[in-house]
Amino acid sequence: MQIPPPRPPARAGDAEAAAPFPPDLHDVRHLWLKAVLLLVWALVSFGATYFARDLQALVLGGWPLGYWIAAQGAVLVFIALVAVYGWAMSRFERQDAPDPEAPKLPPHGAQGAAGSPPHG
Q1: 60: which strand partners?
Q2: Which pLDDT does position 44 carry in this prediction?
Q3: Contact, 86 vs 94, CB < 8 A?
Q4: CA quadruple 16, 19, 21, 23: dihedral sign
Q5: Is the distance from CB of 58 to CB of 68 less than 8 angstroms?
Q6: In the 8-state DSSP scheme, what is residue 60?
Q7: Which helix (H) or strand (E) holds 63?
Q8: 59-60 and 63-64 beta bridge pairing
Protein backbone atom coordinates (compact mmCIF):
# COMPACT_ATOMS: atom_id res chain seq x y z
CA MET A 1 0.00 0.00 0.00
CA GLN A 2 1.38 3.35 -1.06
CA ILE A 3 0.92 6.46 1.06
CA PRO A 4 -0.24 9.52 -0.91
CA PRO A 5 2.03 12.57 -0.81
CA PRO A 6 1.08 15.25 1.73
CA ARG A 7 -1.16 18.06 0.56
CA PRO A 8 0.33 21.52 0.24
CA PRO A 9 -0.80 23.98 2.93
CA ALA A 10 -3.97 25.90 2.20
CA ARG A 11 -3.56 29.42 0.85
CA ALA A 12 -5.88 32.38 1.30
CA GLY A 13 -7.10 32.24 -2.32
CA ASP A 14 -8.04 28.54 -2.06
CA ALA A 15 -11.00 29.24 0.21
CA GLU A 16 -12.38 31.76 -2.29
CA ALA A 17 -11.93 29.33 -5.18
CA ALA A 18 -13.80 26.63 -3.26
CA ALA A 19 -16.76 28.91 -2.50
CA PRO A 20 -19.92 28.01 -4.45
CA PHE A 21 -20.34 31.48 -6.00
CA PRO A 22 -17.81 34.24 -6.49
CA PRO A 23 -18.79 37.38 -4.56
CA ASP A 24 -18.99 39.49 -7.73
CA LEU A 25 -22.00 37.43 -8.89
CA HIS A 26 -23.94 39.00 -6.02
CA ASP A 27 -23.32 42.56 -7.16
CA VAL A 28 -26.40 44.78 -6.76
CA ARG A 29 -26.59 45.40 -10.52
CA HIS A 30 -26.69 41.68 -11.22
CA LEU A 31 -29.34 41.07 -8.58
CA TRP A 32 -31.57 43.85 -9.96
CA LEU A 33 -31.15 42.55 -13.50
CA LYS A 34 -32.11 39.03 -12.44
CA ALA A 35 -35.07 40.29 -10.41
CA VAL A 36 -36.47 42.38 -13.28
CA LEU A 37 -36.03 39.59 -15.83
CA LEU A 38 -37.67 37.06 -13.51
CA LEU A 39 -40.57 39.46 -12.97
CA VAL A 40 -41.07 39.82 -16.73
CA TRP A 41 -40.86 36.03 -17.11
CA ALA A 42 -43.49 35.52 -14.38
CA LEU A 43 -45.82 38.15 -15.85
CA VAL A 44 -45.63 36.62 -19.32
CA SER A 45 -45.95 33.05 -18.08
CA PHE A 46 -48.62 33.38 -15.42
CA GLY A 47 -50.21 36.71 -16.31
CA ALA A 48 -51.06 35.63 -19.83
CA THR A 49 -52.58 32.41 -18.51
CA TYR A 50 -54.55 34.14 -15.77
CA PHE A 51 -55.95 36.78 -18.12
CA ALA A 52 -56.38 34.49 -21.16
CA ARG A 53 -60.12 35.19 -21.52
CA ASP A 54 -59.61 38.94 -21.30
CA LEU A 55 -56.79 38.77 -23.85
CA GLN A 56 -59.04 36.98 -26.35
CA ALA A 57 -60.91 40.25 -26.90
CA LEU A 58 -57.76 41.91 -28.27
CA VAL A 59 -56.91 40.94 -31.86
CA LEU A 60 -53.36 41.11 -33.21
CA GLY A 61 -52.77 40.30 -36.87
CA GLY A 62 -56.13 38.61 -37.23
CA TRP A 63 -55.59 36.31 -34.24
CA PRO A 64 -56.78 36.76 -30.64
CA LEU A 65 -53.94 38.01 -28.42
CA GLY A 66 -54.35 35.10 -26.00
CA TYR A 67 -53.75 32.61 -28.81
CA TRP A 68 -50.78 34.60 -30.14
CA ILE A 69 -49.10 34.69 -26.70
CA ALA A 70 -49.73 30.99 -26.12
CA ALA A 71 -48.58 29.93 -29.59
CA GLN A 72 -45.43 31.99 -30.02
CA GLY A 73 -45.39 35.23 -28.07
CA ALA A 74 -44.22 33.71 -24.79
CA VAL A 75 -41.40 31.83 -26.51
CA LEU A 76 -40.26 35.02 -28.25
CA VAL A 77 -40.32 36.87 -24.93
CA PHE A 78 -38.19 34.15 -23.31
CA ILE A 79 -35.66 34.36 -26.16
CA ALA A 80 -35.61 38.15 -25.77
CA LEU A 81 -35.00 37.75 -22.02
CA VAL A 82 -31.98 35.54 -22.67
CA ALA A 83 -30.64 38.03 -25.22
CA VAL A 84 -31.14 40.96 -22.81
CA TYR A 85 -29.42 39.04 -20.01
CA GLY A 86 -26.43 38.23 -22.24
CA TRP A 87 -26.17 41.82 -23.46
CA ALA A 88 -26.41 43.26 -19.94
CA MET A 89 -23.86 40.86 -18.46
CA SER A 90 -21.44 41.65 -21.30
CA ARG A 91 -21.94 45.35 -20.59
CA PHE A 92 -21.30 44.81 -16.87
CA GLU A 93 -18.08 42.94 -17.68
CA ARG A 94 -16.89 45.78 -19.92
CA GLN A 95 -17.66 48.29 -17.16
CA ASP A 96 -15.77 46.23 -14.57
CA ALA A 97 -12.76 45.51 -16.79
CA PRO A 98 -9.56 47.30 -15.85
CA ASP A 99 -8.71 50.31 -18.02
CA PRO A 100 -5.91 49.28 -20.45
CA GLU A 101 -4.74 52.92 -20.56
CA ALA A 102 -4.21 53.08 -16.79
CA PRO A 103 -0.56 52.88 -15.65
CA LYS A 104 0.47 49.63 -14.04
CA LEU A 105 1.30 50.25 -10.40
CA PRO A 106 3.28 47.76 -8.34
CA PRO A 107 1.37 46.08 -5.50
CA HIS A 108 1.41 47.94 -2.18
CA GLY A 109 4.66 47.32 -0.36
CA ALA A 110 6.44 45.88 -3.40
CA GLN A 111 10.22 46.09 -3.38
CA GLY A 112 12.24 47.20 -6.40
CA ALA A 113 15.59 45.79 -7.53
CA ALA A 114 18.02 44.77 -4.76
CA GLY A 115 15.42 45.32 -2.04
CA SER A 116 15.13 49.09 -2.49
CA PRO A 117 11.69 50.72 -2.45
CA PRO A 118 10.24 51.62 -5.87
CA HIS A 119 10.98 55.08 -7.20
CA GLY A 120 8.03 57.41 -7.66
Answers
A1: 63
A2: 85
A3: no
A4: negative
A5: no
A6: E
A7: strand 63-64
A8: antiparallel
10 Å CB burial of residue 59 (0-12, 13-18, 19+) is exposed
Amino acid symbol at 85: Y
| CA–CA distance, 37 with 35 (Å, rounded to integer) | 6
What is the total residue count of the chain? 120
Give the pLDDT of residue 79.
95
> What residues are paired with 63 via a beta bridge?
60
Q: Is 2 helix (H, G, I), strand (E, B) or coil?
A: coil
Using an 8 Å Cβ cutoff, are 92 and 29 in contact?
Answer: yes
Question: What digits encode the pLDDT tens for the residues 12-26?
Answer: 555 555 556 566 666
For residue range 43-58, what is the model confidence (pLDDT) as tens digits?
888 877 787 778 788 8
Tell me how far apart the alpha carbons of residues 118 and 120 are, in angstroms, rounded to a whole number.
6
